[in-house]
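Structure (tokenized):
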């Protein structure tokens, strides 16, 4: 095993900005020193908790098992995975290989204690890590305190909890060491992303023609990438990137549009100020924050389709039925002879003033702005025969369309009524707006204003 200092130095280079946490973890779980029975590692998302803990335990060559709570639906599954992972890790550390047998039943923390005592008795130290255990589904209140006390019962066992936000009363166990992973600052994020700068040119540049080789390309991208990341943080990342993962995604999405003038030959690789001025528009929009399903620039056809109102497509006679129901709901029954009789030639006129020609003292509210009134089924069917272009018999098709409108809640039953929906005495009330039913009427050649009373 490598010396402790060399392990710390190697891990610090692999995980920058986490030197203090690596030093504390390597000290606590070094093989030649006793480890605390319970340790809490906490921090927000995308702060490197899980990956650093795993890397430290692997570098120290300590037998360990990591249980991810996101993969466990129930508490029993969490405990059984802990038993299986512990058994396989111990056999792998002893050189006997992995075991492939029947899954061991484990339903309680006491059963887990018995299995762990049998499995780790041949190793001097074992670390059991529960990652994200504070978000375990269907977890009882006694799960975390029970798991935390396993380290005090079994001498060669150390429990590590990786959680998001610590709670003083989470474990009911005093003296538990806590290791915090703070969020990355601007300098930390730029330092981490600078470890892997993106290429400026996707295709290899002709060295003989442009006198530009691999060494110059590496120097240019190492010089340009950190300055670009700083601009992304100041313009977008500071307000929209909540963690390192989101900030990295934004930087990757905007990199190719940013360096396109360099690829085209308009600007040089070191003309950062001119490049920033020419490409400042990409830092002012939100294209990098929107998902890939949403198109940044909708086509003219999509804009025309959005401008058109969309209505529920109904069968042919259902449209007439809904128009008849609207007229029956907003027209007084006493005016049905005026608007729906076809026996004589008549003029439909608006009844808004007095007979003597004097102005009315009271302004009348349009009827379609009032609440709909209930109507009977036989009245709606009579209005339907009046507004239809050609007469139709009352067959099962009409009855089916009435049931369809009722199931869509475009027609609502009112009152107790009878159990039969198609009883002539059943009363309904229309449940749609004037804009919808007028457009529906125009689609079948009916202008409802000619039939609507004032």
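Design, position by position:
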């Amino acid at each position: 095993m490598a010396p402790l200092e060399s392990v710390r130095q190697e891990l610090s280079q692999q995980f920058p900005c986490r030197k203090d946490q690596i030093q504390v973890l390597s000290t606590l779980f070094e093989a030649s020193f006793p480890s605390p029975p319970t340790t809490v590692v906490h921090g927000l998302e995308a702060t490197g908790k899980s990956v650093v803990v795993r890397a430290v335990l692997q570098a120290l060559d300590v037998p360990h098992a990591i249980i991810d709570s996101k993969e466990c639906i129930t508490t029993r599954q969490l405990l059984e995975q802990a038993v299986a992972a512990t058994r396989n890790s111990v056999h792998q550390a002893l050189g006997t290989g992995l075991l492939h047998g029947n899954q061991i039943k484990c339903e309680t923390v006491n059963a887990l204690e018995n299995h762990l005592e049998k499995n780790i008795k041949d190793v001097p130290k074992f670390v059991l890590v529960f990652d994200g255990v504070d978000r375990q589904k269907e977890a009882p209140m006694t799960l975390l305190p029970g798991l935390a006390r396993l380290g005090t019962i079994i001498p060669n066992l150390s429990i590590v909890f990786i959680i998001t936000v610590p709670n003083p009363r989470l474990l009911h166990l005093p003296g538990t060491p806590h290791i915090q992973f703070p969020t990355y600052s601007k300098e930390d994020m730029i330092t981490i992303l600078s470890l892997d700068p993106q290429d400026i040119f996707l295709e290899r540049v002709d060295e003989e023609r442009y006198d530009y080789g691999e060494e110059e390309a590496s120097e240019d991208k190492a010089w340009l990438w950190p300055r670009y990341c700083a601009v992304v943080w100041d313009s977008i990342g500071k307000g929209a990137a909540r963690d390192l993962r989101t900030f990295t995604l934004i930087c990757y999405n905007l990199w190719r549009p940013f360096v396109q003038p360099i690829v085209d030959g308009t600007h040089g690789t070191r003309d950062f100020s001119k490049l920033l001025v020419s490409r400042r528009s990409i830092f002012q929009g939100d294209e990098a924050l929107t998902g890939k399903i949403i198109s940044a620039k909708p086509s003219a056809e999509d804009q025309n389709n959005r401008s058109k109102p969309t209505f529920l497509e109904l069968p042919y006679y259902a449209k007439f039925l809904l128009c008849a129901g609207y007229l029956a709901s907003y027209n007084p029954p006493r005016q049905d002879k005026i608007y729906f009789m076809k026996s004589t030639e008549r003029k439909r006129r608006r009844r808004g003033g007095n007979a003597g020609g004097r102005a009315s003292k009271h302004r009348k509210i349009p009827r379609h702005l009032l609440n709909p009134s209930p109507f009977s089924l036989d009245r709606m069917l009579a209005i339907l025969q009046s507004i239809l272009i050609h007469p139709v018999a009352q067959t099962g098709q009409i009855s089916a369309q009435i049931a369809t409108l009722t199931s869509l809640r475009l027609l609502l039953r009112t009152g107790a009524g009878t159990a039969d929906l198609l009883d002539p005495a059943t009363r309904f009330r229309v449940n749609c707006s004037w804009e919808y039913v007028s457009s529906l009427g125009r689609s079948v050649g009916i202008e409802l204003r000619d039939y609507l009373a004032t």
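Reviewer-requested clarification: Strands lie at 38-43, 64-68, 126-131, 157-163, 178-181, 375-376, 411-413, 427-430. Confidence is low (pLDDT under 50) at residues 344-357.
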